[in-house]
Amino acid sequence: MSSTSNYSTPPCAACKFLRRKCLPSCVFAPYFPPEEPIKFTTVHKVFGASNVSKLLNEIQPHQREDAVNSLAYEAEARLKDPVYGCVGAISVLQRQVLRLQKELDATNADLMRYANNNNNNNNFQYGRRMVNSGYYNYSSAWNNGISGGHNNIGTDNCDGGR
Ligand SMILES: [Zn+2]
């Protein structure tokens, strides 16, 4: 019976590697499937199976998958780069962020200068337009004054007469 059930559900990658029976309560089984043996050996080589087991038991079940994935990422980076591990990748990215931040600041400064120049040009044009429209208003007022000249002159004369 047990041999049949073992055959239908193979042990997880951790239990297979550690040569132990994979129980239904195995903390590794959901995160280290038998078809991904490298994932466990990498994590085990760097962190040790008992530390990983302890860590998984200390955190909430819904966070365990993320924890295992981050451990696998860190372990892989540590094996590739024994000196810096994933810190090497982090410092490269941090330098990139600093460089991009400087580029962004410079671009924003250019944009501000461009916007200011554009505003000055617009103000200048607006000013000219204002002068022009002022001129037109003045001339139209003048024309109105001419057209209504007789009435105005008449009342002015009447007032002056009193
Ligand atoms: Zn297992």
From TrEMBL:
Domain (LOB): residue spans on this chain: 10-111
Superkingdom classification of source: Eukaryota
Coiled-coil boundaries: 90-117
Keyword line: Coiled coil
Keyword Coiled coil: yes
Protein family (similarity comment): Belongs to the LOB domain-containing protein family.
Protein name: LOB domain-containing protein 25
Source organism of this protein record: Solanum pennellii (Tomato)
